[in-house]
Here is the input.
Amino acid sequence: MGTLRRFGVFGLFCFFHLAASNPSNVKADPSISASPATIRLGLTQSLSVRCDIPAGWGSIDSVILSQVDGTAVHPLAEITPSIGVISTLAAEDAKVTGALNPAGNYLQVTRSFPQVATSGVYSCEGVGTNSLGKSVSFSVQVRVSTEYASQPEYVNEIITLHKQQQNTAQLLADAYATGNATQHLLDKAARRIRQINDNCEPVVGTGCSDPSLPVGQHVITVTPNDGLGGIKVLCDVRVPGDGWTVFQKRFNGSVDFYEDYAAYENGFGNVDGGEFWLGLKNIRRLLLENNDENTLRIDMTEQGTGFNFTRVYPVFMLGDESGSYTLFLDGYDDGGTGMSANSGARFSTFDKDTSGGCPSSLRIAGWWFETGCGYVNLNGLYGLSGGEASMFWYEIYNHPRHSMSRTEMKFKRRQVPTVHF
Here is the structure.
């Protein structure tokens, strides 16, 4: 604390001094205050002494806050532009804050559980330069007194503290008991899991998650456990055992996506190497086969530029037939101008409007149209150069004029974190 300096004490109480070089252009005077001004011994929990130097006073070089004991001055804290705030007090006994900025300057010391030794005179002294380049200085003081509270007040305080102590002890006891009970349940669950694992065959991925499928795209037949037969699907395998099931693929405009609701429900196109829509019924069956825990991925190529884009929504679900296969997406922030805007929308076509307001002129293909038609339509007219009837994704450029020449929509079972006991 070698930088803390003593300017000297210029008086005993609330004394203020400006050096002779300080002209009358100083707009405001520095001040010092104490809160509370009187310490109630045993009851007051903190004492704050604050020195304020208004912005109009001048440029600050140094401010020191001290406690005065007769002729002895004990520096407590200092603030300078180059060093900032420094303190001689232990961190557990006091908190020191301060700032030097155009809006105003201050230095404050807050002392915990003040006693008689904490009372007395506090001084704030500073030096700086005014707007005319002249040296200026100040010294202000404040006195903090002490008093004893009444006996009933001390008794009430002791009773309050005793109740707090009892409540804390009960909370600790409850937490200990709850912790033991919780640990017992965890141990029991862990034993049951081990018992089940010991009597089960290893689970092998099926469908597009079959680990025997190599990297690449493959057409296979998946048979969900719903008794409704098999579904021919296209698998996009990027990592063996973790393949994606493709349910929409477009790349050359060979398949017309201007179809009615029945076609979109049952599927159309050619899964074997062509463009296709797998069908809402089939998509939902496969999603349910994964316990309705799926992730959606969309791969796109922009028309004209050939730029590739990918969007992934970690949560992907479809409602049932009675709800027109309502779309639900979550987990990716596209700013509300991507496919998240369609979340909550029902599937709609030109012959079955469930959008609640999207005009038929823009419903030229089946999609999850919301009231304002939304910001995405990957089933739009192929080859159309921009516009809300094209295959567009607004979020990429914040404009519907950029159409896509290739799209693949696919899903896979969402990875659920493993819980270890």
